[in-house]
């Protein structure tokens, strides 16, 4: 089975748009800059697309040479973009934001200019952008959260496969309507898309250990999905609902699409599109 990395994505701001790249640095918490920032409301809550779907319209563009992240709202060329330094200077203003699944994020406030830009575009007064530096220990009900991650939901990495994506696209066309492959992929907000010959749909659920470009990744759990995957990441509208399809094809009793993975040997490594993936160890499923 010829497996390889076909696409890579980073999500710098929690619940905002993706930045696609051909290669990216790994850090102890996951991809460099992945979920390093969060938008915090006046009630000190880290907002997600569950609360405000329009977050997906904030698209980040990273320039590593300049050390900047440029934010564009709804790809509006008439709107003035916002430029944020990748390395936020230490700020005397520290903020905390409650996380929807329990616990808090804490970090440095990124200033009034980007705060006003976010509040204007999202039509919510008082929003703040926070560069996250730590998180509280999760409650017992969320013990599976990797302590190294910053603002990711569960683990360092989220991986999906082309075969499972194609299967879901066909199921949606059969039952609901035609949907563009990219439109569907963006809804699931994974870091890796893996492609390969003869890989069956949901085959990734059998991977216990995977080697990608010499870096070893271990399976943690299948990614159980919520209603966020119904949000069109280009329009913020909830249409063509893939969650209903996944509900008819549960895996291990859950609505799963993609897998969470972790790695212990990610320091000073890069993952590139085209790199070979090798399944080192497999696991049995309880379907």
UniProtKB/TrEMBL annotation:
Domain MOSC: 132-280
Superkingdom assignment: Eukaryota
Pfam families named among the record's database cross-references: MOSC (PF03473), MOSC_N (PF03476)
Residue runs in coiled coils: none
InterPro entries named among the record's database cross-references: MoCF_Sase_C (IPR005302), MOCOS_middle (IPR005303), Pyrv_Knase-like_insert_dom_sf (IPR011037)
Gene Ontology MF, one: catalytic activity
Protein name listed in UniProt: MOSC domain-containing protein
Organism of origin: Acyrthosiphon pisum (Pea aphid)
């Amino acid at each position: 089975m010829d497996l390889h990395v076909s696409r890579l994505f980073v999500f710098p701001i929690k619940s905002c748009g993706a930045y696609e790249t051909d290669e990216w640095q790994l850090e102890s918490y996951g991809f460099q800059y992945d979920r390093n920032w969060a938008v915090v409301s006046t009630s000190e809550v880290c907002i997600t697309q569950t609360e405000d779907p329009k977050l997906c319209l904030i698209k980040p563009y990273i320039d590593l040479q300049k050390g900047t992240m440029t934010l564009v709202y709804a790809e509006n060329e008439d709107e003035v973009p916002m430029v944020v330094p990748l390395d936020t200077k230490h700020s005397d203003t520290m903020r905390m934001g409650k996380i929807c699944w329990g616990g808090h994020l804490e970090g440095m406030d990124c200033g009034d200019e980007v705060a006003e830009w976010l509040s204007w575009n999202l039509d919510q007064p008082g929003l703040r952008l926070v560069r996250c530096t730590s998180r509280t220990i999760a409650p017992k009900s969320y013990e599976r959260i990797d302590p190294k991650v910053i603002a990711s939901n569960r683990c360092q990495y989220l991986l999906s496969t082309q075969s499972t994506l194609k299967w879901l696209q066909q199921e949606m066309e059969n039952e609901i309507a035609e949907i563009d492959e990219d439109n569907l992929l963006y809804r699931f907000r994974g870091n890796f898309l893996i492609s390969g010959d003869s890989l069956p749909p949901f085959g990734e659920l059998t991977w216990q250990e995977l080697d990608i470009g010499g870096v070893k990744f271990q399976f943690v759990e299948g990614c159980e999905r919520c209603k966020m995957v119904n949000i069109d990441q280009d329009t913020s509208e909830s249409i063509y609902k893939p969650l209903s399809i996944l509900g008819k094809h549960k895996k291990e009793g859950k609505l799963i699409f993609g897998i969470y993975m972790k790695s212990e040997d990610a320091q000073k490594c890069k993952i590139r599109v085209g790199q070979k993936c090798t399944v080192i160890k497999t696991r049995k499923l309880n379907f």
